[in-house]
Q: What sequence folds into this?
C-alpha cells in the first residue's frame, strides 16, 4: 500500500508533514507513505528542505495521493509540463487535496461538478477554476476528498486511513497525535467531520 504526498517547491510544512506523521501511525507490513516531488529536493515556504522519497511518476501509480499546498501553487498549475506528469485517476486511487492543492485537482479536471474545501487565500482561485468552495474543513465524494485549513490535514489523513484500513485504524492514528487531556474530544470531532463521507461510501457499496 503506497500513499504519496505531492510536495512542491514552496510547500507548506504543516500540510505535508502532519499528513505524513498521521499516516505513518499505521504500522503494517507494506504500508508506505512517501513525500513525492518533481525534484530530488524541495524547499518549503519557510526554508525547510526535504529530500523526495518518490517521483511524480511513482505517485501517479500510488494507491492514494494527497496533493499538498504551498505558496507557489498557481505557478505549479501554470506549468503544463509538470502538470502533464500528474496522471491521477479517482477510479483507481484515493485522491485528496489540502488547501491550495485543491487548485491542482481543479485544474486537472478532477473536481468537475464536485464542491470542495480549500484555504481562504486559495478560495477565489478555485472558484475561478469553476469549483464551488464550501465553508467547512473537509468534504469527500467518492474517491476524492479535499480539506481546508492547515490543521484540517489530520482529517484528510484519517479519511485515507479509514478508507484503506477501517475507522478503528483512523481513530487510533488520531488518538496518538491528539493533545493529552483532549484525546477523546479531538478524535470525536475529527471523526464527525469524515464519517458522513465514509457512511456515504458504505451505503453505495
A:
Amino acid at each position: 500500500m503506497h500513499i504519496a504526498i505531492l510536495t512542491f517547491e514552496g510547500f507548506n510544512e504543516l500540510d505535508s508533514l502532519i499528513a505524513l506523521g498521521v499516516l505513518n501511525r499505521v504500522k503494517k507490513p507494506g504500508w508506505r507513505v512517501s513525500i513525492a516531488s518533481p525534484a530530488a529536493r524541495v524547499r518549503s515556504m519557510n526554508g525547510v528542505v526535504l529530500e523526495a522519497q518518490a517521483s511524480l511518476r511513482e505517485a501517479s501509480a500510488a494507491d492514494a495521493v494527497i496533493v499538498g499546498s504551498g505558496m507557489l501553487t498557481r505557478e505549479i498549475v501554470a506549468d503544463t509540463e509538470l502538470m502533464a506528469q500528474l496522471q491521477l485517476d479517482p477510479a483507481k486511487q484515493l485522491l485528496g487535496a489540502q488547501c491550495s492543492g485543491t487548485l491542482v485537482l481543479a485544474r486537472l479536471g478532477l473536481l468537475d461538478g464536485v464542491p470542495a474545501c480549500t484555504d481562504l487565500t486559495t478560495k477565489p482561485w478555485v472558484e475561478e477554476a469553476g469549483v464551488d468552495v464550501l465553508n467547512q474543513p473537509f468534504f469527500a465524494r467518492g474517491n476524492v476528498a479535499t480539506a481546508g485549513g492547515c490543521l484540517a490535514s489530520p482529517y484528510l489523513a484519517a479519511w485515507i486511513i479509514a478508507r484503506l484500513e477501517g475507522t478503528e485504524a483512523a481513530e487510533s492514528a488520531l488518538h496518538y497525535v491528539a493533545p493529552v487531556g483532549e484525546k477523546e474530544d479531538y478524535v470525536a470531532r475529527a471523526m464527525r467531520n469524515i464519517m458522513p463521507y465514509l457512511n456515504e461510501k458504505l451505503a453505495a457499496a
